[in-house]
């Protein structure tokens, strides 16, 4: 299982969380990574934790003030990027352009989407993975596997119909190790986490609890 | 073949073009329709021409000032709507929401997109049709079948891979009857036209020329 | 006082509300108008009620699929347009462009904004009027004059500092005639209304109650 | 004069340009600064050059994946931020929100806009400075003072009318020291530069030439 901890713009210490991600990663078969804000990518990557960007723009080098360039993110140490997160929704043409920009810079790609139909659409753009984020579960603490297990199974089926090489992540409603196991049982290849780790008093302990049942 | 004449915000008489669409439709096996601006839908539909909206928003009845409601468009006489036209690009989640809104109001749907990858994505959302609009051809007068026939064939293949029930239209680079025939030969089920008819001195003659080779 | 009834995309009969606006307008010194959806402008204007658009785009005649052209709206019978309503927020450059487009088509303009600072900014663009819509009051039923009278007075002062010719409307928290009177006492030259009239069982009675204290 | 070098996403070495900015700043009465991409702010600030962000979002700490938080930018070493650059246009409400977010983090603010009317609007939001960027001059190499000196004088007048404490920068059409002097003569308190320095073979020499006539 792939476990990606999204730090959003939470009031946390990104380096401390990254060190926890790095340390716990060495104790488990799961693959752990952290997605800090753009300004923190370089410092986070220097910890040795696998580092992802939260967003990249569908641009090339040039006149793009205030945009995130895939090459900048990669040079700073990121190995992948989230695309179209529910808090940063993009136009279809820009998701496509961002997948191309990320591939150009050798970044892995996870395209987020709301429901199985959109997951099929996202998979058709050829990313490495897609993440299903049912809007009704985002930030609720209700595990998707408990609230609506069909949405994960349907997303897995929708992606497989379009491109069986695209992995499906569960992008909302994950806070415990049991949730991670349940997501895997439904066919997910990984999970996106956020506040459960990023806002924990002890991020390392929170991660250890998460991977314990894996 | 389906021939949809998009009036955009051209300085034309929408009723005169609609009457030409209606009259020429009766003379051909092709299916002709016209897409006027929202303010003109009712008057255009009253001509008896098949009428489409240029855009609908992913909303329901409610607090949505300045948005286009599918039910309003349908009540005014439209039978379908363009979605995500290159001049009105939408977020992926909003294309999905707009397809649902249009279906709720019994409107047919054509989702536009730039290239075969995006056409696959659009087809995954379950519209009635998709339209491929290569950005490099929009407004150039160069027929897509001549400039880049692969893009139409690849779009047809991409849509068929995802959902064989989704028709593919050629949405740029069509100005003559030969272009329409060529698009059909490449697998397209129809074409989107604009200035060639809307800005013609004699829209009826322009349409007659277009459908003559069909 | 100017009283503009915004029909949004409410499930109401736009012609029935327009007839109520027209009839009550003849009984009062207040100026009454109605803002229907784009598809309804022509039918609403034909009632004889003063008709406004809910939105216009910063465009000219041309390749603008799915956009609202000022000339189309004016030709359909509208005499003015809302701009930057809280449900249709625009970029600063597009508010400016829309004010110019509306002026080109002889439409009156009301630019909406959230707070006194933004009201000053909106007034600097030279519209006929601005409307202050404190986000915390929109749709609450709490009259702005009771919840936060300072915001209206501050908005009136901010607009007057920048351009004393720009009228200030109160764009949220108005549902009774007393609210309208209170808004006028705070310096507002009018009010924006919505559900209180549009969703009333008897729109004419609702309007009569509203203008009774004026 | 304030001279801000915007690195956009140009293929330049941000640290090398920053060192040039730092070194030339010590030789002149002009104030020099550099605006790198978000991922480079920390490394650029470590050179000792005055560092600005290219963009900040109107957000606080929280669930804002893929957004630029003012506090992150300030902690990384930036002392100010561009807002609403022509390549990153914002909604009016978001310009206002971004000015507030920047002020919360003690960042200086420059709000960009197209023309004198928008400059007046930007000034009404209370930033430290505004920058006028006539769209027809962006990236042309034609100095604004030569092509259209009125736009700078009118922008200075428009800002002064609204708030005399807001400085006006010239944000397009500057490439030589004479252009900087001419902008100052028209009332500008500074200039935004980009490719002339960022893409120069020798950024330090380019900057020395620019400040020589000051």
Descriptive report:
Chains A, B, C, D: Homotetramer; dimer of dimers. Chains A, B, C, D: It is an enzyme of class 5 (isomerase). Chains A, B, C, D: Keywords: Cytoplasm, Gluconeogenesis, Glycolysis, Isomerase. Chains A, B, C, D: Involved in the gluconeogenesis. Catalyzes stereospecifically the conversion of dihydroxyacetone phosphate (DHAP) to D-glyceraldehyde-3-phosphate (G3P). Chains A, B, C, D: It is found in: Cytoplasm. The structure is a homotetramer of 214-residue chains. Chain A is of the alpha/beta class and 214 residues long. The first copy, chain A, has a single domain, classed as TIM Barrel (Alpha-Beta Barrel). Helices cover 39% and strands 17% of the residues of chain A. Chain A has ten helices and eight strands. The first copy, chain A, has helices at 14-25, 41-45, 70-75, 92-104, 116-123, 144-147, 149-162, 177-185, 195-198, 203-211; strands at 2-6, 31-35, 50-53, 80-83, 108-113, 129-132, 167-170, 190-193. An eight-stranded parallel barrel of chain A has the order 1-2-3-4-5-6-7-8, surrounded by five helices. In chain A, α3 links the parallel β3 and β4. In chain A, α1 (14-25) runs parallel beside α10 (203-211) and α5 (116-123) packs parallel to α7 (149-162). Chain A is globular, with a radius of gyration of 16 Å. The first copy, chain A, starts with a strand and ends with a helix. Chains in contact: A-B, A-D, B-C, C-D. Chain A binds chain D through residues 6, 8-11, 35, 37-43, 54-55, 59-69, 72-73, 75-76, 82, 85-88, 139, 194-195, and chain D through 6, 8-11, 35, 37-43, 54-55, 59-69, 72-73, 75-76, 82, 85-88, 139, 194-195.
């Amino acid at each position: 299982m792939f476990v990606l901890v999204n730090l959003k713009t939470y009031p946390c210490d990104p380096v401390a969380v990254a060190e926890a991600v790095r340390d716990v990663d060495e104790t488990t078969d799961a693959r752990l990574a952290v997605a800090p804000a753009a300004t923190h990518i370089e410092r986070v990557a220097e910890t040795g934790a696998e580092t992802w960007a939260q967003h990249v723009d569908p641009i090339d080098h040039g006149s793009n003030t205030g945009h995130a360039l895939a090459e900048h993110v990669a040079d700073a140490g990121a190995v992948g990027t989230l695309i179209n997160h529910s808090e940063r929704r993009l136009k279809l043409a820009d998701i496509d352009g961002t997948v191309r920009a990320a591939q150009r810079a050798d970044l892995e790609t996870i395209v987020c989407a709301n429901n199985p139909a959109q997951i099929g659409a996202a998979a058709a753009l050829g990313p490495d993975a897609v993440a299903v984020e049912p809007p009704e579960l985002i930030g609720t603490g209700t595990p998707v596997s408990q609230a609506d297990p069909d949405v994960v199974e349907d997303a897995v089926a929708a992606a497989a119909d379009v491109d069986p090489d695209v992995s499906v992540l569960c992008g909302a409603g994950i806070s415990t190790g049991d949730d991670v196991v349940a997501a895997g049982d439904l066919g997910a290849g990984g999970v996106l986490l956020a506040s459960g780790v990023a806002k924990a008093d002890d991020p390392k302990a929170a991660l250890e609890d998460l991977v314990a049942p894996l």
